[in-house]
Amino acid sequence: MSEEMYFKQENVINRVRTGIDGLDGIIDGGLPGKSITLVSGPPGSGKSIFCFQFLYEGVKKGEKCLFLTLDKKVNGLLTQAKKLGFEFQPAMEKKLAKFLFLNVNKKLVYESMTNEILSGEYDRVVLDSITPLSEMPIYAKGTENNFDISIINSEEIPTNTTLPVRRLHLRFIMDALETAETTSIVTSELPMGSSLLSRDGISEFLADGVITLNFDPPMDRRKFSVMKMRNTKHTLRPQDIEIGEGGIRFI
Ligand SMILES: Nc1ncnc2c1ncn2[C@@H]1O[C@H](COP(=O)(O)OP(=O)(O)OP(=O)(O)O)[C@@H](O)[C@H]1O
Ligand SMILES: [Mg+2]
């Protein structure tokens, strides 16, 4: 193979369709394969619906999909998805889709999460949302490149190390997704009217892409913006979207 051909092959980025046609159209056909995209927005802005749509697109193609939820009402989540036209039951029976509840009150929440991500050979993973995890007190042992984390009681939180510790904390999650070589979506809960890209102020730097969902109440409109996307030329202009049967649709 000539050097030029080799160079071209190396530069072809595999695109993973999100299932939202309008979005795939403005990001070169889909999310870069094996990337981590942060989806941020206030309550009700469509973060979970985005996640359903992304995983549903995967199961339609026969890909293995994992939905990590911090909401213990997994059945409620499945009902919500079904109402929008995303019926995951058949895929769950075929072991193509899995919905796993992460209990943040359990000391081993990190282990259960990373074990599942790393052992499942998933093509697509969703973590909805990272916010309760990023706000949990943790204690990191070791150096920045070789560390082990565990959750501690609030009385034991080292007072002077919140930012470095939180960064390690979030990197631990992002590292697991990266190691698993899966294409992932991580959501972050923003307060209404916030101009931040994530609740923790760190995830947007660790993620390969950032999408924000928002409202324009006076115009009775929903907005969708791609703020960052690795290896992709994209507009920053907020796009008008609708939510309904079939999920998010660009107008
Ligand atoms: N069938 C439907 N038709 C039209 N709009 C819908 C429908 N179902 C849900 N919605 C809209 O989507 C919103 C919920 O979206 P979603 O659950 O994805 O929000 P979220 O960003 O995950 O919120 P939270 O941060 O509270 O989890 C509802 O508040 C409603 O406005
Ligand atoms: Mg949600």
Task: Describe the protein in words.
With 251 residues, the protein is α/β, with parallel strands linked by helices. The protein has one domain (36-250): Rossmann fold (3-Layer(aba) Sandwich). The chain is built from nine helices and 13 strands. A nine-stranded mixed beta sheet has the order 5-4-6-9-3-10-11-12-13. The chain has a two-stranded antiparallel sheet with strand order 1-2. The protein has a two-stranded antiparallel sheet with strand order 7-8. Helix 6 packs parallel to helix 8. The radius of gyration is 18 Å and the shape is globular. The termini are far apart. The protein binds adenosine-5'-triphosphate and magnesium ion (MG). Residues 41, 43-49, 83-84, 189, 243-244 line the site of adenosine-5'-triphosphate (ATP). Adenosine-5'-triphosphate is lined by residues 41, 43-49, 83-84, 189, 243-244.
Give the overall average pLDDT.
88
Helix and strand succession? HEHEEHEHHEHEHEEHEHEEEE
- Rg from Cα: 18 Å
Distance between the termini: 45 Å
User: What is the class in the CATH system?
Assistant: Alpha Beta
Helix percent reads: 25-40%
General form: globular
**How many strand units?**
13
Residues in β-strands, percent: 25-35%
Q: Strand pairing plus helix content: what structural class?
A: alpha/beta
